[in-house]
């Protein structure tokens, strides 16, 4: 082992209070998640020499570092939407492997739900009208509408049905029912999804993620730090990142997302194949994201996602490939850039800390390989991380 090729593990993960949190600031949720992740690892904050944070403060992550009492010598503020955290995990892994840092904390917190309820902000319909967006904003489509257009194109080209898309929401809710921390746990049916209020055709309300408050933190460390931790390491085996487009007019194929590239890179670098993966945590702001990302990652062929998600394949209990084991953004929590929550859940599954929602093989064994893949913007970016345990 040299400082240039060190192995990197996730040694601490945690969530802050999530769901409905009316009495905390985003900074407080950052701190709560960070303290819990360090406690999970059994380490003092003095070990942290790297910080990755985005989405808060004028000088992110400088303000977050100050609030947490950290003075990092390695820092990352990459912001590419929901995939920010998988991309940051890739950067942190490279930095630790090269000896530029020993322990990097990824941390996030948001009070998106509470802010809207209190009138401190409104629901944003646009990301602005400058740069490439100026050519699309006048036509009035919202963020949700962009995802809806992509879903409709998949339906036209591959025969995907709205019932198949609804299955994603139904199975996410079934997984959430096993998660005591999930915001919504009551069962839903395909008919429930289809009969809801229309948001952007073909998406009704239950095709769309929930809005919650919450934060998360993940601590990555070099292999020599692992021996000082209270938790078993979950190793970063391979990562990939990809940027696709900003303007919808520059996206060559609405039925293929950026995970087709980031996933291929992550699997190649990890030296594993999709069929070896035991479970997947996939960004699911909308049902179509889950379906098309399953195709992009190679769990099924292009155009086969609709058939793949049928018959309970995504369920923790009895599913061939459990997906979004905590209930995902459709049912568990979605405070904004949710990618960090995917990494937390993946680590907990590999450690065997899933409780009722724990993924197990036919003989009751714990999973050995998992993947977290997140999407940012309107399929603008993607980050994929393959994780494994000893």
From TrEMBL:
Residues 240-389 form the Thiolase C-terminal domain. This is Thiolase C-terminal domain-containing protein. It comes from the Bacteria. InterPro entries: Thiolase, Thiolase-like, Thiolase_C_2.
């Amino acid at each position: 082992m040299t400082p240039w090729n060190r192995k990197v593990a996730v040694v601490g993960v945690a969530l802050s209070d999530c769901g409905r949190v009316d009495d905390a600031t985003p900074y407080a949720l950052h701190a709560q998640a960070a303290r819990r992740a360090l406690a999970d690892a059994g380490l003092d904050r003095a070990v942290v020499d790297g910080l990755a944070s985005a989405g808060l403060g004028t000088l992110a992550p400088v303000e977050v570092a100050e609030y947490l009492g950290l003075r990092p010598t390695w820092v990352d503020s990459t912001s590419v939407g929901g995939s920010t955290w998988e991309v940051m995990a890739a950067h942190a892994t490279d930095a630790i492997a090269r000896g530029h840092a020993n322990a990097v904390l990824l941390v996030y917190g948001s009070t998106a739900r509470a802010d809207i309820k209190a009138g401190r902000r409104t629901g944003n319909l646009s990301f602005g009208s400058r740069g490439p967006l100026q050519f699309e904003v006048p036509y009035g489509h919202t963020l949700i509408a962009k995802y809806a257009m992509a879903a409709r194109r998949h339906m036209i080209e591959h025969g995907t049905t709205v019932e198949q898309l609804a299955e994603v929401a139904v199975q996410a809710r079934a997984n959430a029912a096993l998660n005591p921390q999930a915001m919504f746990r009551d069962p839903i049916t395909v008919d429930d999804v289809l009969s809801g209020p229309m948001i952007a055709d073909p998406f009704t309300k239950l095709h769309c993620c929930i809005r919650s408050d919450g934060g998360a933190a993940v601590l990555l460390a070099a292999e020599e730090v692992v021996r000082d931790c209270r938790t078993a390491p979950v190793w970063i085996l391979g990562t990939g990142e990809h940027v696709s487009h900003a303007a919808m007019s520059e996206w060559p194929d609405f039925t293929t997302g950026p995970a087709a590239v980031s996933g291929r890179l992550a699997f190649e670098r990890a030296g594993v194949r999709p069929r070896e993966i035991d479970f997947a945590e996939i960004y699911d702001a909308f049902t179509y994201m889950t379906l098309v990302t399953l195709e992009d990652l190679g769990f099924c062929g292009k155009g086969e996602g609709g058939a793949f998600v049928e018959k309970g394949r995504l369920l923790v209990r009895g599913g061939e490939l459990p997906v979004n084991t905590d209930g995902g953004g459709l049912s568990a929590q979605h405070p904004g850039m949710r990618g960090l929550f995917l990494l937390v859940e993946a680590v907990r599954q590999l450690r065997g800390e899933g409780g009722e929602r724990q993924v197990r093989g036919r003989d009751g064994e714990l999973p050995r390989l998992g993947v977290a893949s997140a999407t940012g913007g309107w399929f603008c970016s993607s980050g994929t991380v393959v994780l494994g345990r000893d």
